[in-house]
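Illustration: Contactin associated protein family member 4.
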Amino acid sequence: NQSLYLSYLIYDCDEPLVSTLSQASFSSSSELSSSHGAGFARLNRRDGAGGWSPLVSNKYQWLQIDLGERMETTAVATQGGYGSSNWVTSYLLMFSDSGRNWKQYRQEDSIWGFSGNANADSVVYYRLQPSIKARFLRFIPLEWNPRGRIGMRIEVFGCAYRSEVVDLDGKSSLLYRFDQNSLSPVKDVISLKFKTMQSDGILLHREGQNGDHITLELRRGRLFLLINSGEAKPPSTHTLINLTLGSLLDDQHWHSVLIQHVGKQVNFTVDEHRHRFHAQGEFGYLDLDHEISFGGIPAPGKSVSFPHKNFHGCLENLYYNGVDIIDLAKRQKPEIIAMGNVSFSCSQSQSVPVTFLSPRSYLALPGFSGEDELSASFQFRTWNKAGLLLFSELQLVSGGLLLFLNDGKLKLNLYQPGRLPSDITAGVVGLNDGQWHSISLSARRNHLSMVVDGQVASAASSLGPEQLYSGGTYYFGGCPDNSFGSKCKNPLDGFQGCMRLISISNRIVDLISVQQGSLGNFSDLQIDSCGITDRCLPNYCEHGGECSQSWNTFHCNCANTGYTGATCHNCKLNALASSSLCSDFLVPLPFPWMCAYMSMYWNHNGSDLTRVRNTNPENPYAGFFEYVASMEQLQATINLAEHCEQELTYYCKKSRLVNKQDGSPLSWWVGRTNETQTYWGGSLPDPQKCTCGLEGNCIDSQYYCNCDADRNEWTNDTGFLSYKEHLPVRKIVVTDTGRPHSEAAYKLGPLLCRGDSGTATRQRGFLGCIRSLQLNGMSLDLEERAKVTPGVEPGCRGHCSSYGKLCQNGGKCREKLSGFSCDCTFSAYTGPFCSKEISAYFGSGSSLIYNFQENYSLSKNSSSHAASFHGDMKLSREMIKFSFRTTRAPSLLLYVSSFYKEYLSVIIAKNGSLQIRYKLNRYQEPDVINFDFKNMADGQLHHVEINREEGVVFVEIDENAKRQVHLSSGTEFSAIRSLVLGRILEHGDLDQETALAGAQGFLGCLSAVQLSHVAPLKAALQPRHPARITVSGQVTESSCVAQAGTDATSRERTHSFADHSGTRNDREPLANAIRSDSAVIGGLIAVVIFILLCIAAIAIRIYQQKRLYKRNEAKRSENVDSAEAVLKSELNIQSAVNENQKEYFF
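Result:
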């Protein structure tokens, strides 16, 4: 586990890849304007209009990046357009090596759509598992904000990808000859990647003199691994292995292959699919020559007993037992012989496929005028039995020519209005097999011919009096709606599948021009990608059921299996039967097996503990186990069951399992195949290993079993044997108990079988999250187990994936057993959803200081949550947000200092303008960002947001005034010391304006103050742990924000100091009274009288408020503290209102 952890640390593949790209690396389907171009789509950037937006928002738009070379991409991130209502809520991710023939990113055999953004500026990240190795990436929006447009900013993360490639042209190959002493005769490990457009070809071949051979061959787009041992003709099942994996592998995309052959164990992996096979009989050794060929069988004198075709395509990262074959070939090493034309760069196909996604899909292309011949050719692949392939309008005579699939057969009809369609040919059978098929159709005057897959399928030398000429429009795949006035006729459903290499009048159609809208017309197509999938891989049909499929679904034929149901999972029950109920059982069973849903166990005669002494290799001990059922019955049970196991307990005292001198076994057991097994309970079928060897906790770390430590004390190697092909245990042999004090003991448990093998081997495993698992009342640590379990990752997307967006203002969603909560620790807000602002009223001369560190030296040992601002750390970016209300100018709103006399100040100058002053170099004057569009000391609520990235500062005031400024004083904030709100108590080396504002301090209300992850008002007013906060003067919790549901305009009006008679508390009851009076007019007299009394009371209140306001206005010019009293009075009223409001989530 430690080595895996160290390798994970070394393998760091999370570098941002987009931020360093040039403008030319970005492209898109269209752009709304020059400022909405693809080059402005970098994450967190605000250049141009703040992101990419296409001219029209529909499902045919895309954003593309060129990484310059093939890279490994491990994560993606998206944002909407900056400060806009344009964002994407879901999208697809596609990738390509050449910028053509795109492939959709998939996970677990299905196309994976990504959930996008819920607003313009939040960032949504996704980890890609598996990662993508490609040069080009394309984002395709599926859904977007209905009140806006498509808008995207993106980033992808990853690293460089090492790749050694070789291109073979179908006539070339590589032959590798190796030293016979360098390799194990019973172990081979081969790994490679390949891509091709051809459906057949030899990928590798190795053979011997006696008929032994191992071959990896591509047939009809599937991979076949053939391993033959011996000269048996015909080969028996004991000597021939034929494993098949993969499908549609001729798609010109990379596919990975791993072959592990260790003794009788064969592991065959293609992409994410794996086949594990354990051979029986005499298969442990293959007599093979010391050479292996890749791409064909080029060696002279080699004779093979099967027809073969060389591979035409590219191979990548080809390794044979750790040897880099392509690297040896590039360096022209003598052990590599290159046959034919071999190049070390992968040629890219320029064919453009098109996917017909639904029965409504069609592609309409114009014919060429002046032609006296109807001519078209194309290739297609599909799973559907029926669908229109081509309709062409005819000139001079009304009607058209129809080419379509019907029951998997190709049919060609001549259609004319008022006449029955004339069936010219019945075509070829079985063309809905998912393979590429080529069609060439030609009609000239009264002669017609059609060629299918290179063979002439039909030829009509005379069509009678009809004269066929070039058509006006060619419709591929289907017909448009009748409302378009099309003459296209379709007797069947539309075609669903892929087409490529479409040609009209012997001229290849430019499908990219079709995609760009400059040629033809189409509907519901995916151009430059073939989206066909094999729904029978993996095969969900159990118990030998035959899988067939269409574009959208699959079907299981359960005939002759003994099972029923959608996936042949259910037995044909007969409760009275005492023999086989399903075809899995070849012999009668001594009990009625009810579909294997319950556990069954089989006892034997060796369940008691047996002690063994005085044995040696010449005088071994052998213990035999006799079961209550016959071997045939046990084998039938094991074959049907999902899982079988036997616990083998083996105690030892100075009794070894393996001779450490020569590695020969000293104890072993034998299963139903009569083969010697040297692995023990809990281990995989690896020779001479036990449970402790796999888990790394043997009592002596140099051995794989406890007993091999050979200690003069009792120990044991105990565990469950669960490899079904070896069960049940029939015999155990012990040979090392002849030395003094040497002894062994063993006990074998019953054979336990449970479940249905169909569910285990053919059904897809669980895909999703499991959390809060308790077993017998104890919670299990799933995350720790997940770290060491292949295919399982720690962490789980739960409630937060659905409701996490409810956590606002930087609040983090935290999973709970039956819900979620919002963690507002690093937010300037509080409440259930981090939506309640924390505000404070600052009296005259008051001050609040947040100390990041007491002094420079102590900062290195700081343990507070602000300790990321170390004294020796250079701060290159920060985010500042706050709101304020005041009538005093000058005023200091915020001040951040450092130990190096660098500072940041946000002030209101004497003229009422808002100024942001950055001094990032103690020897230079500060940079000043001035906003003088209005008097900011007007008593209204103002919002400020500052974002700095090195020398670039973005400022936003009240959501409408935005500015970007480049600093000249520096790019880094060194040794940050403290943050001050209110009056500056210790004046340092400050500029005159900051010093004046700092001496005056701040009089008014500050709200939601945040510097990166630090919220000083929250730390002072709602402390949860000791914080370095110093408060002097009057700083009291209050409220200076508008109530929920009001817009920005109403917020300013509500908190205006100009007219206290018009505040919300006064206006709303009056409005309610008028509405109530209208509602009950002509109604109950008593209610009217009550309302009139209420109006009279409110009028008296308004009159009192106006008198108070006039009196305060008169005093205001005499004493600035009167403004403080007015503000404080209003804030206290709003505080009282807010205290009565509570927030609930159902």
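Reading the tokens back as a structure: The chain has a mean pLDDT of 80.
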